[in-house]
């Protein structure tokens, strides 16, 4: 940790109170992850592949592969490639509604992946048990306090609580409220990682002081030099401010829209127009309900890939959290970690003064 701190933060001496307090507050989370610092780079579909994940873990943090819609064979190849680039621990994020979830868990087990994160809903029956039987630690998202307690009773090893400031699919409650509701009740039982809207180390220090074992950031890492995101995607992040990262809006109660936070663009406006058209078609009886709902559900299919990989930031989905305004340049991930750690250490230092 000393190396990371001193690399970018001459203002905090290696033995400062702030640095020691930070190390102490992160100790449990770092031990759980097997990393130097208790900062996870949350899995981001198309972005969190071998390059970003290995760079994150090599920098002392904890990288997580986003499996997304990958087949078991593709995940197998991605884990193999990541292992070739780092000998540090990293995790794999699996989406619970993936039709091959069991096979994906087996792939992780074969590779002896140490941490499996289940995202996108509560873990289906048997999945937690399968992960734990492989010797891996199971990490789940807790959307509410009641479900967090239930997950702890089911044997989950750690929890992530993620507020609506985050990029990607979001719930309805802010990080600050979730942290106040959940940390006092859950943080003793299992390590809890706080996510959503974290752009600077002062916020990390705050959540650690509230009982978090560590934090998870996504948006802040998209413009890492090691990230393979298209130059247009990175440019859009660097230009954007917090208010450009908006949640998708559902126009009609008959046509459910899963809220996603992304940068405003033409694709978002067309989506609103499309919802209006489909709702009108429903009113006129020219389309059946199931077909109408599918049209809305499928509207964004492939849209994140179009933005991240192809660079179509006008019509693709530029998923980004509200912390995007704090992303100001492309820089190596080790520097991002060093900056966050220095800010957090200085925050602890100030509080002591
Ligand atoms: C471009 C992008 C893609 C994401 N994809 C996923 C995903 O595939 N699975 C997942 O669990 N979370 C996903 N997330 C959420 C991140 O893992 C992380 O929890 C979130 O970014 C943290 O909030 P922040 O963006 O405010 O830092 C994504 C976030 C972004 C910005």
From TrEMBL:
Keywords from the UniProt entry: Flavoprotein, FMN, Oxidoreductase
Gene3D superfamilies membership: Aldolase class I
Molecular-function GO terms, alphabetical: enoyl-[acyl-carrier-protein] reductase (NADH) activity
EC supergroup of this enzyme: oxidoreductase
Membrane listed as a keyword: no
EC number: 1.3.1.9
InterPro entries per the UniProt record, alphabetical: Aldolase_TIM, NMO
Pfam families, per database record: NMO
Domain of life: Bacteria
PANTHER family, per the entry: 2-NITROPROPANE DIOXYGENASE, 2-NITROPROPANE DIOXYGENASE-LIKE PROTEIN
UniProt protein name: Enoyl-[acyl-carrier protein] reductase II
Source organism: Sphingomonas endophytica
């Amino acid at each position: 940790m000393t190396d990371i701190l001193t690399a970018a933060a001459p203002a905090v001496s290696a033995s400062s109170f702030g640095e020691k307090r930070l190390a102490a507050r992160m100790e449990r989370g770092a031990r759980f992850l097997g990393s130097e610092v208790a900062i996870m780079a949350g899995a981001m579909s198309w972005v969190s592949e071998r390059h970003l994940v290995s760079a994150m873990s090599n920098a002392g943090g904890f990288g997580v592969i986003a499996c997304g819609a990958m087949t078991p064979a593709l995940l197998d190849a991605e884990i193999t490639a990541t292992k070739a680039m780092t000998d540090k621990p990293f995790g794999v994020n699996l989406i619970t509604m993936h039709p091959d979830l069991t096979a994906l868990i087996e792939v992780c087990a074969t590779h002896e992946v140490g941490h499996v994160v289940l995202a996108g809903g509560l873990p289906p029956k048997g999945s937690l048990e399968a992960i734990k039987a492989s010797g891996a630690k199971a990490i789940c998202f807790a959307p509410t306090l009641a479900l967090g307690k239930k997950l702890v009773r089911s044997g989950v090893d750690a929890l992530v609580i993620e507020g609506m400031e985050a990029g990607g699919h979001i719930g309805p409650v802010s990080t600050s409220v979730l942290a106040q509701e959940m940390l006092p009740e859950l943080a003793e039982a299992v390590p809890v990682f706080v996510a959503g809207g974290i752009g600077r180390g002062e916020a990390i220090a705050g959540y650690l002081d509230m009982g978090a074992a560590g934090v998870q950031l996504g948006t802040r890492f998209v413009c890492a030099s090691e990230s393979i995101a298209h130059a247009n995607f990175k440019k859009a992040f660097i230009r954007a401010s917090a208010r450009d990262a908006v949640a998708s809006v559902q126009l009609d109660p008959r046509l459910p829209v899963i809220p996603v936070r992304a940068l405003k663009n033409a694709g978002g406006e067309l989506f609103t127009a499309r919802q209006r058209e489909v709702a009108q078609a429903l009113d006129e009886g020219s389309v059946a309900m199931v077909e109408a709902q599918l049209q809305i559900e499928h509207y964004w299919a492939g849209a994140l890939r179009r933005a991240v990989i192809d660079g179509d930031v006008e019509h693709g989905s530029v998923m980004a959290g509200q912390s995007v305004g704090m992303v100001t340049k492309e820089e190596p991930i080790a520097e991002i970690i060093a900056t966050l750690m220095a800010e957090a250490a200085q925050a602890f230092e100030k509080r002591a003064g």
